[in-house]
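Q: Hi! First time doing this. I have a protein sequence and I read that you can turn it into a structure. Is that right? Here it is:
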Amino acid sequence: MTSEQAQTTSDTITAFMAAEHARISGLWEQLVAAFNAEDFNRMHRLAGDLIAALKRHIHAEEQILFPAIEKRGAEEAARAMRLEHRQIEQVAHGLEKLLTVQELWTAIQAIEGEETDPGALLRSHERKEQDVLYPLADRLLGPDEARAVIGRMRTEVDKV
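A: Yes, that's right. Below is the predicted 3D structure, encoded as structure tokens:
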């Protein structure tokens, strides 16, 4: 059995980050549901959780994953994702308005007129990472380095 065959899916960048994306998507869906239900206390909490999750995700990629794959020649892929991260940071900043609103009309006004639909941006970004970036990272890094990168993302990102 080769080392690649011995590698389990939990040891891959693709699988590890898929779980992270599922968590972020779940937070987004719950936030939308709380918004629609006019459950403002829950919406405040979920907006804060989502903003923090997005910041952690971006930090993990930009401080740990991207430098690892850039050393292997994937500078363009990392650069493209960094540009999208700046858009996601703008969306997260816009979501901060939802931390304090107390009525539906104010919540609608808080997000109305935003340039980017947060859900669409997150889904598009996730597809690019899941379909292209993470499989590329797994190939470039190999099983041992992928596990090391995952280990760093698990431990270092929580400090953000």
